[in-house]
């Protein structure tokens, strides 16, 4: 079984669904959105 298949199977499992839902809740928080935007900004400025 390839890595992609194993990840896909895990994400369909109950535990995987819990983690996906937790990730969605965390991403909905404004402070986490701000942190991600700052990280993306830093990463994009390094490429130039």
Would you kindly provide a written description of the structure presented here, covering whatever features stand out?
- There is one protein chain.
- This protein is mainly alpha-helical and 48 residues long.
- It has one domain.
- Helix content is 85%, strand content 0%.
- It has 3 helices and no strands.
- It has helices at residues 3-12, 14-27, 30-46.
- It is flat.
- The termini are far apart.
List keywords for this structure.
single chain, 48 residues, mainly alpha, 3 helices, 85% helix
Structural class: mainly alpha
The number of distinct helices, counting runs of at least 4 residues, comes to 3
Distance between the termini: 39 Å
Total domains, how many? Answer: 1
Low-confidence stretches: none
Number of strands: 0
Question: What is the succession of H and E elements?
Answer: HHH
Work out the radius of gyration. Answer: 15 Å
Mean pLDDT across every amino acid position? 94
Approximately how much beta-strand content do the residues carry? Answer: under 5%
Inertia-based shape: flat
- For the report, how would you describe the main beta sheet? none
- The percentage helix is over 70%
Short description:
With 48 residues, this protein is mainly alpha-helical. The chain has helices spanning 3-12, 14-27, 30-46. The longest helix is centred in the last third of the chain and has 17 residues, at 30-46.
Helix and strand topology:
Layout: H1 3-12, H2 14-27, H3 30-46
